Every structure is written in C-alpha cells, then in structure tokens.
Amino acid sequence: MLVVGLTGGIASGKSTIAKMFTDKGIPLICADELARKAVEPGSSGLEEIERVFGNQVLDREGRLDREAMAEIVFRDPSARKRLESIIHPFVASEKERIIRELEALGHSMVLVDVPLLYESGWEGSFDLIVVAYVPRQLQAGRLVQRDKLSLDQAEARLAAQMDIEDKKKRADIVIDNTGDLEHTCRQVTAVLKKLEAVVIERES
Q1: Is 5 labeled as ligand-binding?
Q2: I want to staple 12 with a disulfide (CB 3.0 to 4.6 A). Which of 8, 21, 37, 63 is the partner?
Q3: Quick one: which residues bind ATP (predicted)?
Q4: Radius of gyration (C-alpha) of the chain in whole angstroms
C-alpha cells in the first residue's frame, strides 16, 4: 500500500485538498480526528492532560477546553511538547491500525492528513509527502479572518509551526493553494495520476 502524508501550515487549505482526494475515492486518515479521540472524556489521555496542566484546560463539562489549551501551547514550546508526548503515541498507534485495515480491504493507497508531520518527526512513516502551500502572509490573513484572531495571535500560531517555506522545500510534491478552487483541483487531479503511477510501478 502507498502511504501518502498530507501536511501544510495553518490556513493553507489542507482540509480542502484532503476533501478533493476523498471525493476521488482515496481513503483518508485524519490525525486531528485521532487526536480528538485521544482526549475524549474518560480517556487516559485527558486524565494525563489534567494531571500535567491542571483543570484550567477543562471546560465546565469536564471536556478539554481547546481554546485554553491552545493559548498555553502556542506560546510555550515546552508545554506543546508535553501535550504532544501525551497525544502522539495514541495517534501513531491508531494510524497504523487503520492502515492495516484498509490494506486488508484491498486499498492500494491511503492519504494521511498530519498538520504537524515534520514537526513531529513523522517523515519516515510515509512513502511520499504532499505539502499544501500558501505564502506565510496569506496564511496569517486567512487565519485572522477564519478564526477571528488578532494578528499577534495568528503570528503566535504560525511561529509554533515549521515555516511553510521549509515544508515546501522538504516536500515530495507541492500543491499551490494560492489560486481558486478550480486551480487547486486541477493540481490534485495531476498529483493523483502521479500517485497511481507509483502504485502501478510498485505492483509490477
């Protein structure tokens, strides 16, 4: 099975690109969804987060307060690493389990959406890596508009990730998402043809 990593930066349009692939029949594993599962109420992950960070990161119902957690980890790299050390092992384990299930069902390719792929040192988990790219200035503008953040808050979130230009340089394939949806969709179609060719070559 060809395991393809999809990453990018905040507000780079990665989710839009992921949907374009799924619309074309490619199965998707979303690391963010697995991360949410890791901190569900009653989970060992949430219990550990409360132990490490205190009840200030829980809401009134005892669920993870994502805004409160974000304010801490986006301004404190050591706090972010502590949070990742709790969540990432669960995500990695679930990812591998789902890949095995998909392979058993006969799928020849899977796309894994991982926002912090490079930051987490997961390059070795994938056969190829696709990066959704927009320039940092556009990232910041979209982030302010989308999440109703101040420019300082947006910059803090961008600073917590590897610079998008570095991700672009390290990518096997880049999808430029600065244009309209049609422009992006054409690129996704072309990329999918390349990936299908890789699958055929590996199976021959």
Answers
A1: no
A2: 8
A3: 11-16
A4: 18
